[in-house]
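Troubleshooting log. The previous run stalled partway through. Resubmitting the same two chains, unchanged.
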Amino acid sequence: MKDYKKVNEEIEVPQGLVDQTKALMNQRVKPRGFIFKRVAFAVCCLFVFMFSIPLVHSFNAPKEIEKEFVFNYHDKEGELATFETGTTKTNDVVLFYETIDYKDAIVYFPFLTQINVSSELNYKDEQYGYIYNNETKQKEYGANLSLTYRNRLESKDSSEVINKEITLLVEDKRTPSCFGEMVNINKKQSIDLYETRIKEDEYVSAVFKDDQYRYQISFKNISKKDIQAFISSIL
Amino acid sequence: MLELLDLNHEEVVDYYKDLVYKLACSQVRNESVAQDVFQDVFLRYIRNKKKFENEDHRKGWFIKVTINCSRSYFTQTYMKREVPILMDFADNNKAENYIYYYVLKLPRKYRLVIHLFYYEELSSKEISEFLKIKETTIRSQLKRARVLLKEYMKEDGFDERL
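Second attempt completed without errors. Output:
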């Protein structure tokens, strides 16, 4: 049987075969789990794609803001009835402002916790207003309403009280048929700020527009920068 | 027991080419078919995800896969219709080639144990471990293979060589 071994030893593996085999092996060498990784990657991409759709929608969705800043207009007779449908919360103070054509304006300021009415009351004046205090359920009349408020959003430390005087003037350009409609400035309304002078006082006016109306609030003795911060804090 | 060598694919080919090719030759008895088997075995090695414990484990894997590849070659439909041309060595008239010729005449299972025992110089125990066959079976196959070889050679008047 030694001859058998001898003959076998004489058999040589063709070098061409060896080279070809090596080339084939190198061609086919792929990292372990190559297919699995590709499939896993595809599945991950699919999941990311699927979950990104609602995510993108949530980004694009209108931002829901807890602090509502609502202009709510009512006619004079139905003020209380329609008022109750509003979105005031506890401690909210509602500001009524009566315009020249005797339409009431209700402004909900959830961030107002304290309100002072200026001493000047003028019922006969065409432009006069009154404040409806949500806690006392009473109207408090006054012209050039002077408010002291605590801006809870500006002051992170609740102990700090920022006292500022605000005078609100509402320019109403509504038509009577739209009374009672609620306009929420949290929606995508553009807010323009501009400085104006009424008589001897300087005001910063914030103007909100929607498809039908133009709403204006004028802030007295407050800088434009503060108003900007004030508006951005509530939106 | 030889520790597992750190070989890349090309080094594995160089290390096991003789084992695979010669075993394939003894199994399929045809050089071109043996070359096919050779490539097939190494390509299976590439696809193989099994982790080898030691070099004997890898060697056993190559032996087993070479046998399986050779066997599957004969099960192919076209092979059932064809008679392979025997290797040149089997026709060689050199005196030492006779024994190779008679080994190739043996049934495949006997060729296998003869090859592993006499060329690869594996013990019957090692062969049994590699092939997962009982050692006693290996021994009896070796014995029968020798008897058959003797008979073949006796028929041709070469019995004195054994």
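Takeaways: The CA atoms of residues 112 and 149 of chain A lie 5 Å apart. The helical segments of chain A are 2-10, 15-28, 34-60, 79-83, 224-234.
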